[in-house]
Amino acid sequence: MSTLAQLSHGLALAVTPLNLGLAALGSFLGTLIGALPGLGPINGVAILLPIAYAIKLPAASALILLAAVYYGCEYGGRISAILLNVPGDAGAIMTGLDGHPLALKGMAGPALSLSGWSSFVGAIVAFLGIVALGPLLARWALLFGPAEYFALMVFAFACLTSMVGRNPVKTLLGGCLGLALATVGVDAGTGVYRYTFDDVHLSDGIPFLVVVIGLFSVSEILMLLEQTAAGQAMMRVSGRLLFTLAEMRATWWTTLRASVTGFLIGVLPGTGASIASAVSYMTEKRLLDREGTFGKGDLRGLAAPEAANNAAAGGALVPMLTLGVPGSGTTAILLGALTLYDIQPGPLLFTQQPDLVWSLIASMLIANVMLLVMNLPLVGIFVRLLRIPYWLLVPGIAAISFIGVYSVHGTTFDLLLMTGLGVLAWVLRKFDVPLAPVILGFVLGDIMEQELRRALSISGGDWRILVHSPVSIALWALATGMAFAPALLRRLRGRP
């Protein structure tokens, strides 16, 4: 049976009343869960998995529900990032860099609607990529070993040069601070405790959720309190709620490029939407930011990470379905759902369970259409959050943030650590130190260290393994170009 015939059969299964209703329910719940800081797609899917199994949903229907929650969370994360500068999940961190400044300018409606459109385009690119290139991309992902992943992380760090602007020292400081936070905890290779100060709560490292909520949510609360004390007026909201065709045209190629980049990064196991959105944002900044508008409310800086993180979410399904290897934390839970139903993931899944695979792929298209139709009319309701007075908004953000952090481990230590990081982030913001390099250094630092250790262990300590394959050599060349291109371009233009 041809791919098109299989997709048509899967589409017929996905539009049955049960599966269609589950896709709508999952999309709605995912949007709500994603908008709440601290929950995100991993927690959303994990919460619903035992419920879906307990009510004895068929395997295909359960996966359709959980996958719809996954996509919905990627959409929902942008809401709090744009309106409150509090990312709903890791993939929305880069969205707030330009999304929140747009909200401050009174363009919250166009920002929300354009981000929803960009998310939809990214998801459709991922859908087409899975249908056309899934097995081929799975074989390509197998070319990435520890040395190639380390080179990929170096390339991501090299992209930081696009965020330097006029403050290279402050950007470097932020990246180093993120790397330092990533080293806290037990060294997985030697078992040595690093920077734990004999506190058992730090033995497993600093939880990612604590860092994200502390850096963005708590610091934003302090900024809002400062503005309230200074008598600053609330954000103004323009009457326009939807983006224009001119704005769509201005961001179209950015959205397409970021979608392709996000999908390809999402295919690589262990990368995820946060890395895809960061690389796509910084690449577009490098290509397009000639006026220095990125980070100040540029629509292209909003469209790029939103398209990339949704494309990466779809791309993460490729290694899960074709290799039985989770492409992200959320797909690891989806993989667990397959094993819960006694279904063996891997290369034989397409031949042994074609109905399940193709109905899941078809539901990806259906769920994203539902999300677009659902999210655009709700923009007006979302924007009304900006009309809430600060004296009521600040306690609400604080309550949601503290509950989200406490629900993970149930310890007050995490709350104290989150508050301390928030105060530190507030001080950094007062000195104009960007927070994006901090979170990027924290996310990539742990992965980078692990892959370097694995590569050197495989080679017996020979560093030449890092430049042994054509893939790693290409990534090192790209990283070198990213790092030195700005200085070279300035010299060619005759600038100091």
Structure description:
- The chain has 496 residues and is an all-alpha fold.
- It has one domain.
- Helix content is 72%, strand content 1%.
- The chain has helices at 3-14, 17-35, 40-54, 59-84, 95-104, 108-141, 146-158, 168-182, 208-229, 245-267, 273-288, 299-315, 317-323, 329-340, 349-352, 354-375, 379-383, 390-409, 412-430, 436-459, 470-492, and strands at 185-186, 193-194.
- It has a two-stranded antiparallel ribbon with strand order 1-2.
- A hairpin with a 6-residue loop joins β1 and β2 (193-194).
- The model is unreliable at 230-234 (pLDDT under 50).
Quick tags:
496 residues; mainly alpha; two-stranded antiparallel ribbon; 21 helices
Give the domain tally.
Answer: 1
Q: What is the tally of beta strands?
A: 2
Low-confidence region ranges: 230-234
Distance between the ends: 62 Å
Strand fraction equals: under 5%
Helix/sheet category: mainly alpha
Number of helices: 21
DSSP helix fraction: over 70%
Spatial strand arrangement across the major sheet: 1-2
SSE diagram, text form:
Blueprint (H helix, E strand, L loop, with lengths): L2 H12 L2 H19 L4 H15 L4 H26 L10 H10 L3 H34 L4 H13 L9 H15 L2 E2 L6 E2 L13 H22 L15 H23 L5 H16 L10 H17 L1 H7 L5 H12 L8 H4 L1 H22 L3 H5 L6 H20 L2 H19 L5 H24 L10 H23 L4
Helix pairs in contact: 1-16, 2-4, 2-16, 3-4, 3-14, 4-5, 4-6, 4-12, 4-14, 4-16, 5-6, 5-12, 6-10, 6-12, 6-13, 6-16, 7-20, 7-21, 8-20, 9-18, 9-19, 10-11, 10-12, 11-12, 18-19
